[in-house]
Amino acid sequence: MPFYQKRGIIPQKRHTVFENPQGGLYQEELFGTEGFAGVSSLLYHVHPPTQVAEMGEAYSVAPEIAIEHNLKALSFKGFDLPASDDYLESKTTLFVNNDLHIGLAAPRQSTTDYFVKNADADEIIFIHRGSGTFKSSFGSIPFRYGDYLVVPRGTIYQLEFDDSDNRLLFIESFSPVQTPRKYRNNYGQLLEHAPFCERDIRTPQDLQTHDEQGAFRIMIKKQGYMYPYTYQNHPFDLVGWDGYNYPYAISIFDFEPITGRIHQPPPVHQQFEGHNFVVCSFVPRLYDYHPKAIPAPYHHSNIDSDELLYYVDGDFMSRNNIEKGQITLHPGGIPHGPHPGAIERSIGKKATEELAVMIDPFRPVKITKQALALEVKDYYKSWL
Which residue from 3, 128, 261, 263 could staple onto 167, CB 3.0 to 4.6 Å apart? Predict the structure, then answer.
């Protein structure tokens, strides 16, 4: 949800002389997407952001596809993913299509020895376990359990964790991540019926200018390869910035659920959207209050989209034997619905404490070899 922000010092007019009191000029950089037609910010560096000291050998990080075409309901135990010390090594892509990649990470250590830059995709990082600080040239954002970190493509950042027990869900979107249009007026402001508002969005604070020269390693991801770059100047050398393109955080706990007398469809839970996919937040809420309401979701056919549900916490009323960190994939083309007994159990219930993230890709996902290592066998038979 971009709205205008300003940090530090900036000149009165853009693209004009901005003198550095230490001598010379501050260096202006346009940071934007979709050519010059998307949202952008203007960044003011102490040093040119172009001075590459060394470039290492690129290596492939492209996911290995195990299943190209799938029409079987599948489930995966996300917490079975082994933890790794390094953040980038820990990132494990499970599902891919041409619009997005979806995966998990369980890093033990912060990225204090290098910086990260995704030159291909906006990132949504959901914090399931852990806390810490997201650091970028725009400033710092503290994060904790339940936060979504939304990171525009091209952002150079570090993740500093408070301890070693961290579990993350990530989405890499090859289109800009946006607030759903149905929540915004013609001016971009969030409407009164939206399930969150601008007050819930946490923008970067505490801008610190790192006027340092040396050897700063930035790991840049582009088209399935990782490119190790070494820059001469610290990437967080901004004295100021302004605009609409920057990272931010919003908590799943600040999503205010929309409820009704009878069961509401999944679009009322929508949190984000991109090209050919949506992301929804299922949060604790009161159940339907019609005297004959069935709170459990009705059977429905996923004809136009796959449905991926990541279970975070609470009692998952419509599913049997589900654990935290588990993922279900219900492919487009066949119906799915509550597990046996769930409909009957739900009648008369007043509320749910479930917490989950749902991702609906509108084009089928392919499944990686790493995902199959986490698979729950014969999940597709669990409705028998």
Answer: 128
Pairing assessment for the beta strands 115-118 and 213-222 based on DSSP bridges: parallel
Q: Please report, for the chain, the start and end positions of each structural domain, with discontinuous segments joined by +.
A: 51-64+84-236+246-252, 256-377
In the CATH scheme, what architecture does the domain 51-64+84-236+246-252 have? Sandwich (2.60)
Q: For residue 210, what are the contacts with CB-CB under 8 A and spacing of at least 6?
A: 234, 236, 237
Helix (H, G, I), strand (E, B) or coil at 115: strand
Weakly modelled stretches of the chain, pLDDT under 50: none
Reading the block at residue 265, the tokens are 């469809």
State phi, psi for 38 to the nearest 5 degrees: -90, -175
Q: Residues 213-268: pLDDT tens digits?
A: 999 999 999 999 999 999 999 999 999 999 999 999 999 999 999 999 999 988 99
Model confidence over 5-61: pLDDT tens digits? 999 999 999 999 999 999 999 999 999 988 888 999 999 999 999 999 999 999 999
| CB neighbour class for 75 (10 Å; exposed up to 12, middle 13-18, buried from 19) | buried
**Could you tell me the pTM of the whole model?**
0.96
**Class of CATH domain 256-377:** mainly beta
* Greatest alpha-carbon span in the chain: 75
